[in-house]
Amino acid sequence: MKNPNPFLKKIISRKNTAKILNDMSARLNIRILITDAGDNIIADIGRDGEFGNSSNSMVIYPINAGGDEQIGFVKGNEGCSLVASIIDCVAEIESDKRDLTSELLSKYREINLFYDFAENINIRKDFNDMAMLTSTQISELLNADSILIILKNENTGLLEVVFKFGADAAKYAPLKPEDAIIPERVILSGRAEIVNDLSTDVELARILPRRTGSVLCAPLRIQNRVTGAIYLIKENPIAYTSENLKLLMVFSSQVAAFIENGKLLQNLQETFISTVYTLAETIEMRDNYTGDHTRRVMDYSLAIGGNLGISGEELETLKLSSILHDIGKIGISDSVLLKPGKLTDEEFEIIKSHTLLGEKILKNIKQLNHIIPGVKYHHERYDGKGYPEGLGGGDIDLMAKIIAVADTFDAMTTDRPYRKGLSYDAAFSELKKCSGTQFDPAIVDAFIEAFPDIKEK
Amino acid sequence: MKNPNPFLKKIISRKNTAKILNDMSARLNIRILITDAGDNIIADIGRDGEFGNSSNSMVIYPINAGGDEQIGFVKGNEGCSLVASIIDCVAEIESDKRDLTSELLSKYREINLFYDFAENINIRKDFNDMAMLTSTQISELLNADSILIILKNENTGLLEVVFKFGADAAKYAPLKPEDAIIPERVILSGRAEIVNDLSTDVELARILPRRTGSVLCAPLRIQNRVTGAIYLIKENPIAYTSENLKLLMVFSSQVAAFIENGKLLQNLQETFISTVYTLAETIEMRDNYTGDHTRRVMDYSLAIGGNLGISGEELETLKLSSILHDIGKIGISDSVLLKPGKLTDEEFEIIKSHTLLGEKILKNIKQLNHIIPGVKYHHERYDGKGYPEGLGGGDIDLMAKIIAVADTFDAMTTDRPYRKGLSYDAAFSELKKCSGTQFDPAIVDAFIEAFPDIKEK
């Protein structure tokens, strides 16, 4: 025997309901037996009253609580019809109340998830971190099997899955033609879609007639541009509502903003680096380098930095200071900078001034003041015999020590109009020979360790 | 006489309630008179039944609907107690249901505002636009008189009102010491605050003992940094709840992210412009300018552009191309660029190549390809006698025509080591003389119109 219907039990045992039933029973002198649909007795009131005797046989009144289904019965004599009406009436309102409570709880849950989501999405710096938070929340709220974040590649026009979530999501990346149909449509129209039975989708059915399941798909939109979509897949069909779709759209709007902001920053960052790089390279061209010196010094420096465990903002500093290490040469006159023969002492002093000129130029750019040490001190020597200040060993800025090795190695190994460059092996020997005098031994070691990676580039 | 209580009326006229009352009246042979608290008759059932005759005087039963207040009365004989119990029971559940419905409606409203807010905040590019949307929503949801967005100035440490909303908000900007107390505390602790009676705030009471009203204040936080606060003021005290504060925190989190993203972009943009500017200015320094040539050419160009109604992205293009107009000079050798006397034809050809060298350099920076025309053609003449291509009139890029006027004017008016610059008036005459031959007349006119603004700088 199952447990008695808790809803019916709750109604009957309400303090005021119980009082009404007792009063009715007493006043009408009737026995009232209430059972649920499973014949469990919920109440049995007024055992002394009339109850189904021969002259007045037992009547059974169903309790419907306003719905179609019978949730229980009132059994007794004919007088019980009134009792049944009362219970029915109370049960109907209570049933409405129960529905409202459950809806309210679900809305509270939705609001709380919003609160959490809105507060947390903005502390994410990283796309994957943000995408994981979003997908976890969506999946919890909308009971999804797979969630894909899809972007349209601006160059190829193809849809690319940039993030996937869920145990089965792997099978959707890369997107197969049939899986791309709905996101394609959403991106094209800019309108979100619910498909609760994939087999009814005309376009999809043409390609894959037996596909089942339900999907929600919302565009990633910034202002009037649609750049991609969030695609939510439920393998076994489920009845998604427009409320569900609206919820997904809130998430998609936040994801779109996150992606867009990242793109804007990245684009500006790239513009900045590539402008600075091009100008630096143009300046180096005056110095008889045949091109790509800046690129190689940067690559070597970053490889050394990576080997030494430098990361994040420090690596950015290393990148910029290696690109701009010779910026001061812009102020050295051709007659000195381009002199083919041996320099006089005075001329050498002028050449040496490019380190201080670099500092002077960069001092004008407050946001780049942090790269000055790398630029200013890249001609210092480990033994203290370098310039401009003759600093030794540990007093020299790490970035400068790295750039010194990278710069010297590239200067040795590249061809100039007036001489051929050394082989890598010969240049390595030279670096090792100068390790501990010109160069910091730790940097030389790091360079040699990192070099196999460099050669592969 | 007032209208009958609609809630009581609704309960009594429910189909099943009405049926119960009729059945009761018939079965118990009683008259049932139901009135609301204002003595309006809601129902009068069974006029044939007993009712307050001498042997069985009328009894009055209050209807409380589970609350303390009496919402109506059942009047009749003693048998009516049961009727009153039933109505009371139904009214109590209906009253719960009414409360739930109203709470649910308010949650739906909150969710819908979230939806709208989350979808709309991200399409705002402009801080004021975003702040207005946010404040309108907050004000509607939380019934605020004033809303302030406050940022802590990174240099001075002072709190600054960067946006205000509401009819009375003007009196809070700039912030007076007493108005800064709560935001200061919130920014310092990073914890949001509710103060429902300002006169109870110990710190505030010390400064301003008679201040009344209620406030909510939420920090603007990104990761672990608090950069400011949203401050909501209600002049007449109101009972704000922790739910209200939570809601404000969702908005504050979105506003903080918006501000932070803007700052990141702006900072990078400033780094970019100031780096490019410094490098360009360094290159100009070789050309015997004594400094600030780049700044002045940029200022003049932007003034002309502004006068011509150029704005937005085009103005950005003008700014960058005016800064970088002579970038190609980096490739011209000192012997030609710095020659004090008259140039040979061959040397002049070399000088002219700086326009094409500029194009060549900028071609390497795909994000700056849009500024090439301004750089390449800034030595074309309106009459077609310029270089590098001898383009005429309308064929010349607008940016280039603007830079030509700005550059020539600055070249004429600044001192060089070997000659003194012209006065502004003499240079104006020169510009006018060359209007229609060397320069586009429309640009010369725009420059002369804009010049009063320039002189004020």
TrEMBL record, chains A, B:
Residues 290-412 form the HD domain. Residues 268-457 form the HD-GYP domain. SUPFAM superfamilies: GAF domain-like, HD-domain/PDEase-like. InterPro entries: GAF (IPR003018), GAF-like_dom_sf (IPR029016), HD/PDEase_dom (IPR003607), HD_domain (IPR006674), HD_GYP_dom (IPR037522). Transmembrane segments: none annotated. This is HD domain-containing protein. It comes from Candidatus Acididesulfobacter diazotrophicus.
